[in-house]
Amino acid sequence: MKYAVITFGCRVNQADSLGFEEDLRAAGAEAASPEHADLVVVNTCSVTASADQSARQTIRRVARNNPGARIVVTGCYATRRPDEIAALPSVAQVVCNDDKPHLLRLIKKDGTAEIAENAEKFFFSAISAPLREALNGRGH
Questions:
Q1: To pair with 90 at 20 to 30 A between CA atoms, which of 9, 55, 66, 138?
Q2: CA atoms of 39 and 4, how far apart (whole Å)
Q3: Are 19 and 124 in contact (CB under 8 A)?
Q4: Sheet strand arrangement including 91-95
Q5: Which residues of 102-111 are buried (b: 16+ CB within 10 A; e: fewer)?
Q6: Which residues pair with 58 in a beta bridge?
Q7: CA dist., res. 70 & res. 13, Å (int)
Q8: With a threshold of 0.90, does the pTM exceed it?
Q9: Which of 6-10, 15-19, 22-26, 107-111 comes out lowest in average pLDDT?
Q10: Phi-psi label, residue 88: left if phi above 0, alpha if psi -120 to 50, beta otherwise
Q11: Alpha helices in the chain (DSSP H)
């Protein structure tokens, strides 16, 4: 399976997205551009109305450029307006912030992505040492 992660917003979202990518690779997935990915995870921000608009535009663009992609949306905007996000084209699943630590399992359970059966770990159960080191001193 090929995946892409698109991130909007703060350092927390950036760290979350790094964790998504690390766990997807550990599960046997391969990074790709959104135009060529089977799964696209969009990690949204909702600080301003323009942040919401940017996320919607990006989701629509991914759906238009890669109609076969399964889009999973998470983050603050997805948590705040899940019905609005779910109504966008090609959105297969909306995962609220509280469920981010279980994103890989939720995607697997929902059947929206073929993820290796041995991928039992959850996102954020423990941030990897390299990620912790990368975030140290960056004002997170």
A1: 9
A2: 6
A3: yes
A4: 30-31, 2-7, 39-44, 70-75, 91-95
A5: bbbbbbbeee
A6: none
A7: 20
A8: no
A9: 107-111
A10: beta
A11: 11-26, 49-65, 76-80, 82-86, 103-110, 129-135
